[in-house]
């Protein structure tokens, strides 16, 4: 598990990140941010969805509480991945290494790292994470610097890029699991309710995300608690599916992590 | 957006993001056993993304028609499990083509 092996595994992630962070930077600059701002955000945050929403909130003049709570809600999934990754790492990671690697926990890095057959090493993880980080910051810089060069029509077309990527993240698992499908449907309905209803649409995006996602997720989590028995079975099928999915970020990683947790829990309980 | 708005906003974003990423690696040594918390954490990304995407995706481009075209392409391709990059690029292409057509026909 060498540094170069990590770099190699990080390359496809970096390529995928280029286009996404490119679109992010363009969106940020279109929102009125100076060129350096999205680059600074990418350099200090290294997260997709959170940056997209957070930058919009800052541009919209949202309160700091709103910004904090929204970022917390969106990034909550990292806590679970981080726990799961911790179990996958070998012994002998000093605190400073753990602190450094924490910064590189993203959906995609997590998804690739957790699929490795062996215990993870510090050199492998730094290779993986630094490679994808370069793609992320590089794409942001290109987008921020070149954004204005492109004609309006191309800019308009790129505006849909991140949305389309999120669609690609939520639809395949919604097709596989009826509970996820239900969650996506009621979340969409709730979001539309806030978007189109006269009084409710005064509420800012951040609070809409928080309210809708907490209410909808609580309902689905209560109706369909994760079934520990079934978690181990579809794992193989899902791993192969994730392979054909560009390293499949949120859904695959979320499933992988929870499967791991469920398995670990059972083992621990006995 | 003033300079201090941006810097303070960036600081908060970076801090919150780092804390969520580091909490497991630095602090949690045991597995989460609470079934509701597990389920909640498992489901929440899908809900957040769905709320973010819909209906915003329809209005993310210059006209609603190109937005609908891009959304349809993204939905169809991801239903057939195409990768993120493919879905994203195809959706961009659909928006671009529809907007060109609108210009030509107008």
- Please indicate the percent range of residues of chain B in DSSP E strands (runs of 2 or more): under 5%
Count of DSSP H/I helices of chain B: 4
Percent of residues in helices of chain B: over 70%
- Sheet/helix structural class of chain B: mainly alpha
- Written as H for each helix and E for each strand, in order along the chain, the element string of chain B is HHHH
Radius of gyration of chain A: 19 Å
* Portion in strands of chain A: under 5%
Number of strands of chain A: 0
Q: Approximately how much helix is present in the residues of chain A?
A: over 70%
Summed up, the helix count of chain A is 14
Describe the structure.
The complex is a heterodimer of chains A (270) and B (106). Chain A is mainly α. Chain A is built from 14 helices and no strands. In chain A, helix 6 (107-114) crosses helix 14 (250-269). The longest helix of chain A is centred in the N-terminal third of the chain and has 28 residues, at 3-30. Chain B has helices at 3-27, 35-53, 64-79, 84-105. The model of chain B has no long low-confidence stretch (mean pLDDT 89). In chain B, helix 3 (64-79) runs antiparallel to helix 4 (84-105). Chain B contains 4 helices and no strands. The chains are: A mainly alpha (270), B mainly alpha (106).
Compose a concise summary of this entry.
By secondary structure, chain A is mostly helical. Chain A has helices at residues 3-30, 36-45, 48-59, 64-88, 95-103, 107-114, 122-146, 152-158, 161-176, 178-196, 205-223, 228-231, 235-243, 250-269. With 106 residues, chain B is mainly alpha-helical.
Key terms:
heterodimer; A: 270 residues; mainly alpha; 14 helices; 78% helix; 0% strand; globular; disordered C terminus; B: 106 residues; 4 helices; 77% helix
